[in-house]
Amino acid sequence: MLKFARLAIPCAALLLAACSAYDLAAYRNASIQPHPIGYAIEPGNQIIVKYCHERSLPIPDAASGFCLYLPIEDGSLRAGAVLHFTPQGNHAYLSRLQAPLRRVTTNVDVEARVVALTNEGVRLAIRANTLPNVSPTWRFEGEQFHAFEAIAPVLDIGWEDESRH
Q: For position 101, what pLDDT does the model report?
């Protein structure tokens, strides 16, 4: 029992020190471009919806997370619309972090339902997963509000771009 207590106390303290970070946004007149460590949002002619989530512990290489980017044609974004993203059609872009590795892919299937659209942003209900041939597998489901933001003058590559925070 004493061995368990010696192990449980440091583990509990480490879990309490864990951090989670989210970065949700939607960019008008934007495009998504490949970048050496993920994807970059640049000026363009689409709406790019971004959802990033990272979890980390205060030890080396103890971070994981993802950034999902959805390029949407301006006329397609309306309340009630159901948007589909597939590798064969309109691509979704996924960047996954499993420290120290980063994996990027467009082999992801996404259904995004536009719950609400205002001048301030868009609320999407998203269901997404990697295709069966992608390893390791990934899946996400949730509903979030993505506020419209201006494209930053620096590259937006998800959570690595510390100049925006």
A: 80
* φ and ψ at residue 122, rounded to 5 degrees: -135, 140
What is d(CA 129, CA 134) in angstroms, rounded to the nearest whole number? 10
Residue-wise DSSP of 39-100: EEEEE-SEEEEEEEEEEE-SSTT-EEEEEEEEEE-GGG--TT-EEEE-TTSS--EEEEEETT
Per-domain residue ranges for the chain? 20-159
Q: What are the pLDDT digits (tens) for 49-78? A: 999 998 887 777 778 899 999 999 988 999
Question: Measuring CA to CA, which residue among 108, 96, 118, 162 is closest to residue 26?
Answer: 118
Q: Are 130 and 140 in contact (CB under 8 A)?
A: no
pTM above the 0.90 mark?
A: no
Question: CA-CA distance, 151 to 161, in Å (whole number)?
Answer: 13
Is omega for the bond preceding 100 within 30 degrees of 0, making it cis?
yes
Give tens-digit pLDDT for 84-93.
999 998 999 9
